[in-house]
Amino acid sequence: MADGTESAVGSSDATIDLSVFADYFGFAEHGTDLKTEVLAGVTTFVTMSYMVVVIPALMVGTSGKPGITVPGYPPGAVQQMLAVATIFTAAVAIFVMAFYANRPFAQGPGLGLATFFAFTVVGSIGVPWPTALAAVFVEGILFMVLTITGARSLIVNVLPSPVKHAIGTGIGLFLAVIGLSEMEVIVPDPGTIVALGEIATNPVALLSVAGLFLTLMLYVRGTTGSIILGIAVTGGIGYLATFLGVVPEGVLAPQSLPSAQYNIAPLLGTFLDGFADVDGLTFSLIVFTFFFVDFFDATGAITGAAQAGDMLDEDGNFPDIDEALMADAVGTTLAGILGTSAVTTYLESAIGVDEGGRTGMTAMVVGVLFLMTLAFVPLAAAIPVYASHLALVVISLLMLRNVAEIDWDNLTHAIPAGFTILVMPLTYSIAYGIAAGIIAYPLMKTAVGEFDDINVGQWLLAGAFVVYFFVRTGGVIQGSM
């Protein structure tokens, strides 16, 4: 029945339980039922479950990459701490979506935001990771305040349209560079900066490429959970090859695994230490970038998923979007406290909506399933880096389609968008890409006399970023690069 109160087998008590879900989430109002909502939730979870493996792998610091490191704990143990923090953060955000917004969308720390955290903030800029967590916390509070006050339209108007449309593609290229590097498909080269690795003779690169194309084939076939399945198969082959003696230990599989680590006390609350000795200009840029990437990621994902479920009004807007955005805001604030990266709505939510998910019941199922993955946290450190990072390349390819939204025939749009897209991967910084686009936009509009297309906020942002780049590259801020 459409109201979700179909009789349960063998028990009137079970029927009452079903009616509780139906009444609370409004199955009849949304034209859905319990079975559909549960199936949609399971589908959404499976398609985005790779997050539990990939986010910790992105954020953990090792001798070869920037990120979060904890004295006295090996990277594998820290990776498990990050997995626990990621799971709890995602679950809380999803439950806010389920019980407050009553929408079928799922949240979690975003790939682009985690990449910005580790490679730009901690790596390129050189900010200590507790300070990066402090920035995540402040961004979350800012997100909540602006959501409560309904100031979303003000934020939308500040960021130039071509820059908004270019952010996703720029992040996609950034993710691709990181993923292909960890897969050893591209390698540093003194003559050309980067070059193609020795794929045919490098077991890591060879298996990574095979795993990548397997995952892409599964994805285009519409296989549910294609990304996590591709990661598992690729990593499994690496372990099998090591066990059979095809490759030495430590090449395709770690030589040893750390014991299970569920204690996140070394991460919990460290954001408070991050407020000490903070450079205000740098900290403001980090908060600004976290906020804008998070805000537009969340808005775009929610709108896209809602479109898949025919939830938009006649003007193409999503009703009560502020309630849905609150889930991302609360999740991001908690992320800073627990020790992981900013939260966004996952595009994979659209797959669950396409399966018929229409209410918070779908989201609730996703949240419960994420909590159940706590039993498998040790696996987060067992997945080889090359296997987990193939997910970045898959997602990056999907993000390139955002360029279709850019008006390339209008040079005042094409140039700011192009700067945004190019500068991100070339400088290893999402922030610098956004800043370059913001600076270019009013200048290009001024060149053709289209002053009405520029608002005061855009001029102020452009001027602020010019000052920032001067300070950053002029040596005014020492020792932070």
Structure description:
The protein is mostly helical. It has one domain (29-473). The chain is built from 21 helices and 4 strands. It has helices spanning 12-25, 27-30, 34-48, 51-59, 75-101, 111-124, 129-148, 152-158, 161-182, 203-220, 226-243, 280-308, 321-338, 349-354, 360-372, 378-382, 385-388, 390-399, 411-427, 430-447, 456-473; strands at residues 107-109, 186-189, 193-196, 343-345. The chain has a two-stranded antiparallel ribbon with strand order 1-4. It has a two-stranded antiparallel sheet with strand order 2-3. Helix 4 (51-59) packs across helix 5 and helix 5 (75-101) packs antiparallel against helix 15 (360-372). The protein is globular. The N and C termini lie far apart (61 Å). 54% of the residues are buried.
Question: What is the secondary structure topology, with strand pairs?
Answer:
Blueprint: H1 12-25, H2 27-30, H3 34-48, H4 51-59, H5 75-101, E1 107-109, H6 111-124, H7 129-148, H8 152-158, H9 161-182, E2 186-189, E3 193-196, H10 203-220, H11 226-243, H12 280-308, H13 321-338, E4 343-345, H14 349-354, H15 360-372, H16 378-382, H17 385-388, H18 390-399, H19 411-427, H20 430-447, H21 456-473
Helix pairs in contact: 3-15, 4-5, 4-6, 5-13, 5-15, 6-12, 7-12, 7-13, 9-18, 9-19, 9-20, 10-11, 10-18, 12-13, 19-20, 20-21
